[in-house]
Structures are given as C-alpha cells and as structure tokens.
Amino acid sequence: MLKFLIFIAAAFVLYRLFTGDKKKKEEKKEKETRQMASSGEMVKDPVCGTYVPVDSDIRVRQGEKVHTFCSFECRDRFLEQIEASSTGNKKVGE
Predict the structure, then answer these.
(1) For position 90, what pLDDT does the model report?
(2) Domain range list for the chain
(3) Which residues of 1-94 form beta strands (DSSP E)?
(4) Does the pTM exceed 0.70?
(5) Shortest CA distance to 56 belongs to which of 39, 68, 41, 40?
(6) In which residue ranges of the chain is pLDDT below 50?
(7) Which positions ≥6 away from 1 have C-beta within 8 Å?
C-alpha cells in the first residue's frame, strides 16, 4: 500500500513538472511573438490575424502595400475579397 501511495505521489509530481514546463514554453513563445511584432520583424495576417515573419514567402502586393500571409488559404481568401470589392459584390464570408 505504501509503494502505491509513493508511486501516485511521484506520478503527480512528474505531471506537475511537465505541465508547468509546457505552460512556461507557451508563455515564452507568446512573449517572443509580441516582441517581434513590436520591433517590426513580424506582421499581422490581414485575414486571420496570425503574426507571421515579414520575410514570409506568401505575399501579395496591393498598390504600394505588401500584405504577408500565414497560409495560401488566407492569401486566396484575401484575393477573393479584393476581387469581390473591386466588382462591387459583397465580400466573401459576409
């Protein structure tokens, strides 16, 4: 019975160590993202709001402005919105 209680206590301690470590990593990543966004190294995807690196490969130039996207799906949705607004139709998703 004592071995069983020790095993449960050890399992609980290990569980808390791993969950605490995961939470710290998530907080660190979020802090780094905020710092990179404020320094101009990352920009916000205009469709979904995800922060992506400025030098991302998925970009669209609209006049003088260059929009950067997290995925091809977001880029395609943005292009559909531009096309719909230029033809006078409602935007996609409205």
Answers:
(1) 54
(2) 1-39, 40-94
(3) 42-44, 51-53, 59-62, 65-68
(4) no
(5) 68
(6) 91, 94
(7) none
